[in-house]
Structure formats: structure tokens, C-alpha cells
Design a protein that fits this description.
- The chain is 39% helix and 21% strand.
- α3 runs antiparallel to α4.
- The chain has a single domain, classed as DD-peptidase/beta-lactamase superfamily (Beta-lactamase, 3-Layer(aba) Sandwich), CATH 3.40.710.10.
- The strands form 4 sheets. A 6-stranded mixed sheet has the order 9-10-11-1-2-12, sandwiched between helices.
- The protein is globular and about 55 Å long.
- The chain is built from 9 helices and 12 strands.
Length: 303
């Protein structure tokens, strides 16, 4: 009996010690987190402290590279693909007011992403472009490719033909949505792609629309979409072209053309590891150029 009592006493002491240790460990972790320095906007050389794997900052007027990080690396580009999709549709001169029916062929069987565009419903072609660029809707982009003369195979051929015409030697497209990891490019190529996209008034308008209401034709119900680029929604940037992208193979991606210090600047950010990293990187680039406006005059920096 004495042994049992002694055993229970030891067990209670051990339990109390463990219970007491938990808040102490949590407190130490909290203090350690509080001491961890916030990520600096600039590195020791004064350049933007970018966390994206690959990046490019380009003077859109002169073509001058202002900053480059792994600029020739080839990466999956996810929904950045939709910029080329929009350009090919607009180049085709297909009627923008023509109704396109959503088909079961437009369903995402690769990644399982969802869409609020019902199968069987009809949408104007220009509304599908809007939805693809604002909300990055994959079903809208798939319908745009499928409804092209010759179908999706002909559409992808047209995408790759245009890429060659633009000199995008590191770029390949395999679908109209960007869901397949075979849609690849480099920051150097995407800088040219964004500049070309900026020539289209529809892409400039649609890709920088903060929010969009679409009326479903069969029910009359309105569906609200918001731009996938939080910087467009915030309204603190002067953005001319915008597109985000994400699949697991690509990481978070962002391309933009924006006015910074009075100059149109192209920003390409690929494979950002965190949920907000691409937004943070874009803001760091903006702060860097505003702090050093002379850099726009022509000093190249490589990260």
C-alpha cells in the first residue's frame, strides 16, 4: 500500500511539472517570436529584399532592366497564361458579343478547381475574358479556348505561334487556363509578354477591374467576383496590367505593369513561397524605386 501511495505521489508531481512546463515553453516561444526581426524591405546593398524565387523589374518605355533575379530560369506560370489567352482571342477578331455556351469539356478535371459558371449557360465572349482576367476563372478560360475555330488544339497552336512572334524563346503553352504545369516561361519572356498585353485596351481595362458582377443568364442571379490581385483592389497603385497565378508546381506568381515615379514599370514575380510574399515583394520594389528614382535612368541591378 505504501508503495502505491508513493507511486501516485510521484505521478502527481510529474504531471504538475509537465503542466507547469507547457505555459513556460509557450511563453518562451512567444518571446522568441517577438524578438524575431521583421523582414527588411532592402538588403545590405540597398536592393529590394525579394523572397520570390525569380523576379524582373523592367522600364516598360526603354526596355531597360532595373533588377533581375534568376531572370532566365524557366518556371510553370499557372494563370499568367490567361494573358496570352486573352490576346489570342482578341487577335482572332471573333465577335466579343457572341454567346459562348459553357460545356462539360470546360470542367477542370486536372486540379479540381471550381467555378460559378454553370454548365449549359451562355456568356458573351467579352464577359468570359473579363471573368478570366479579374477572377482567374479556369472554366471561363477553357471555354474561350474551346470555342476558338478548330477547338482547343488550334487555340494552343495560336498561343505558341504568338509566343514565337514575340520572341518568347523560353515559353510554351499547353492549355488556355494555365492549370497544366506544362505552361512555362521565364521572367525575361514574361516581361515582353506583359508589355505586349498592355497594348490591348480590353486587357488593360479588364485585368485592373477591382470587382465585377456577372448576371447568370438562366436565373438572373448576380455573381460577384473580385480581382485576384489585392493591389488592384487596394487602389494605392496605378496599375495598367495585372495577372496573378497559382498552382502547386508554380508557387504564387504575379505580373504587372504599373506607373512608379512617373514611369511605366513591368514587375514579374515567380514562385513566391508565402501567401502574401508576392504582394510584399511588389511593395518592396515600389518603395525601392520611389526611394531611388535615379535608377529608372538606367542602372541595372542583379539580385
Amino acid at each position: 500500500m505504501k508503495r502505491l501511495v508513493a507511486f501516485l505521489a510521484l505521478a502527481l508531481l510529474a504531471s504538475a511539472a509537465v503542466a507547469a512546463d507547457k505555459p513556460a515553453s509557450k511563453a518562451r516561444a512567444t518571446k522568441a517570436s517577438a524578438r524575431a526581426p521583421a523582414l527588411s524591405d532592402f538588403n545590405k546593398d540597398g536592393d529590394p529584399n525579394l523572397q520570390s524565387t525569380a523576379a524582373l523589374v523592367l522600364d516598360a518605355k526603354t526596355g531597360q532592366t532595373l533588377f533581375a533575379k534568376n531572370v532566365d530560369q524557366i518556371h510553370p506560370i499557372a494563370s499568367i497564361t490567361k494573358l496570352m489567352t486573352a490576346m489570342v482571342v482578341l487577335d482572332s477578331k471573333l465577335p466579343l458579343d457572341e454567346a459562348v455556351q459553357i460545356s462539360t469539356e470546360d470542367l477542370d478535371m486536372l486540379k479540381g478547381t471550381r467555378s460559378r459558371l454553370p454548365v449549359g449557360a451562355h456568356f458573351r465572349r467579352d464577359d468570359l475574358i473579363r471573368i478570366a482576367l479579374v477572377a482567374s476563372d479556369n472554366r471561363a478560360a477553357a471555354a474561350l479556348g474551346r470555342s476558338y475555330p478548330g477547338g482547343i488544339a488550334a487555340f494552343v497552336d495560336a498561343m505558341n505561334t504568338k509566343a514565337k512572334l514575340l520572341g518568347l524563346t523560353a515559353t510554351t503553352f499547353v492549355d488556355s487556363s494555365g492549370l497544366a504545369p506544362g505552361n512555362v516561361s521565364s521572367p525575361a519572356d514574361l516581361g515582353r509578354l506583359v508589355n505586349e498585353a498592355a497594348r490591348y485596351a480590353e486587357i488593360r481595362e479588364y485585368s485592373t477591374t477591382p470587382a465585377l458582377d456577372v448576371t447568370l443568364p438562366d436565373t438572373g442571379r448576380k455573381v460577384a467576383y473580385v480581382n485576384t490581385n489585392a493591389l488592384v483592389r487596394a487602389g494605392e497603385w496605378d496599375i495598367g496590367v495585372s495577372k496573378t497565378g497559382y498552382i502547386s508546381e508554380s508557387g504564387k506568381c504575379l505580373v504587372m505593369q504599373a506607373i512608379i515615379s512617373g514611369t511605366p514599370i513591368v514587375i514579374v514575380l515567380l514562385d513566391s513561397w508565402g501567401r502574401l510574399t508576392r504582394i510584399g515583394d511588389a511593395n518592396r520594389i515600389k518603395k525601392w524605386l520611389e526611394k531611388n528614382p535615379s535608377l529608372i535612368a538606367g542602372n541595372f541591378r542583379a539580385g
